[in-house]
Amino acid sequence: MERSDILRTLQGLAPNDHAVLFYSDINAKRELVFPFLQDALDKEGVAVYATEHEPFDELREAMKHWGIYVDRYERNRSLTITDCETLMAAEERLNDLKTSRLLSDLIERLMKRGAPIRMVADATALAKRGMVDKLIQRERALGRHLELPLTMICCYEETLVMLKEDEFLTDSMQAHSHAFFSGIALQLA
Predict the structure, then answer these.
(1) Tens of pLDDT along 67-109?
(2) Domain boundaries in the chain?
(3) Whole-angstrom distance, CA of residue 176 vs CA of residue 45
(4) What's the N-to-C CA distance of the chain in angstroms?
(5) How far, in Å, are 69, 116, 142 from residue 94 at the CA level?
(6) Which fold has domain 3-187?
(7) What letter would DSSP give residue 12?
(8) How far is it, in rounded angstroms, from Cα 119 to Cα 109?
(9) pTM of the model
(10) How far is the C-alpha of 173 from the C-alpha of 168, rounded, in Å?
């Protein structure tokens, strides 16, 4: 499968889709996830990029080089760049807020105007620091299809596929609706 086909598949992910992307290098990942986020921003949606793996200043510069108006989007709060641990803590708090009328109203308003909510999370550094079990637990808790109408791509270096005797790969495939590898896109459920 060509990169353009994979990019189209990523762009076609729907609200509630929870995908995993295994990438060979940081630039290959950026070529796929930056357009995914840019599309949400172009449609007046919300984009979140969480990473422990990339310095924020380097990430912002790469996004600007790609053509994303980082300063403007961060200023109007449509783009958030954060670390994975902050995102994971927020996800845990969302469990308490899922019945919140305020949260439901906000998401409903975004969805009515056709504005996508897209998240990219690269927890490679956490996995390398030995937090694999916690990451798998988080991925399972999120499920193949997210309860909230947002689209999320979890990114990991391809080198992590072999962690825990392929258990990381198996668990990742079971916890996501789609999987992307170099040249391959799979719909899992």
Answers:
(1) 999 999 999 889 999 888 777 766 665 555 444 555 555 566 5
(2) 3-187
(3) 23
(4) 19
(5) 28, 18, 11
(6) Rossmann fold (3.40.50)
(7) T
(8) 18
(9) 0.87
(10) 9
